[in-house]
Amino acid sequence: MHSPNFLNVELAPGLTPDDLIFTETAEYEKGFSDYFDAKLRPVLLQENENRLACLKETKRRMRKAIPIIAAIFIVAFMATARWSTKDNAPFLRIAFFAAALTYGWTRMPKINYRQRSKNKILPIVAGYYGFLTYREESPILDSFLRDTRIIPPGDPTKRQSTDHLYGTYRGTPLESWQLTTSRGSGKRSKRLYSGLLIHFGLKKMLGETTMVKFRQGTSNSALFDFTVQGLEPVSLEDPDFEKLFDVYSGDQTEARYLLPPDVMQNLKELSVLFGGVPVDCCFTGQHAFISIRVQKPLFEPPPAHKAPIMSNDIHAFLNQMHHIFRIIEDLDIDRR
């Protein structure tokens, strides 16, 4: 019998396929359990073997590293005692640097395992829909981020845009990134944004810009104060929505057309899905941008000492895509 709590099962070297079961919990997940059995479970089983091999290699390196690091400091102390002065002790600095490199060498198997694991699992999960393609990294131009009006571009050299998914849903171009933007360096470095950016096309050219700002949490208030200039507040007929969001637009009628009850409900549920995080939107031209400030990216593999089971992340991903698809359907102006 399928157990919904298999995420809590600790995987042992003798893991069997029955230890990995996906239980469908919603209508939009219908068919994924069969897909999981055929496509994803074999990969997770192999990743568990890779995890065990990673732990074994890490232990082997640690056994070698401990005497190496000890020898480094013994030599450094001897050299310092013989040749260094009170004001000049370069040998200890060199020893700490060499020890750090040696320690980094012991961690490389775990780092490589986690990166490879994510790059294998996310494309398979996204492949369930049949029209989404995965790209590990995909640069985003400053001009594109400025068009979103909800994400500060920051320094292009410090920008990270990963987990790029792209495809076409019902004739609508759709893509998403896990995005981080920053500015400054060293102690002055400041993270401006970290979260999920979703972009899809609109079939009708909008006459004005409409923006939706999340009221609570760490949204980009200063950015919104600038980008909503020239736009007017919009009152909607959903008091629960207005408790969470402020809406601004250059066209009151168009804004209400873009935010029917179903779209407002999906935006609220997207925030709840990720623990009440800020969700911001911009509708402009023929583009829709949605920002979700997720605290932890989906499908980040657990540490190597834990099993590579991602049931919760799979449920969250399918739920997230379900809401995005519904918003796209509701914004298909030609059908309304």
Protein model, in words:
Helices cover 44% and strands 19% of the residues. It is α+β, with helices and mostly antiparallel strands and 336 residues long. It has a nine-stranded antiparallel beta sheet. α1 (32-83) packs antiparallel against α2 (90-126) and α7 runs antiparallel to α8 (311-330). The longest helix is centred in the first third of the chain and has 52 residues, at 32-83. The relative contact order is 0.13.
Number of helices: 8
Helix coverage percent: 40-55%
Overall tally of domains: 2
Strand percent estimate: 15-25%
C-alpha geometry: globular
The value of Rg in angstroms is 25 Å
Mean pLDDT over all positions: 84
Largest sheet: 9 strands, antiparallel
Distance between the termini: 44 Å
Structural class based on helices, strands and sheet pairing: alpha+beta
Reading side by side through the largest sheet, how are the strands ordered?
A: 1-2-3-4-9-8-5-7-6
Order of helices and strands: HHEHEEEEHEHEHHEEH
Q: Unreliable runs, pLDDT <50, ≥5 residues?
A: 1-12
DSSP strand count: 9
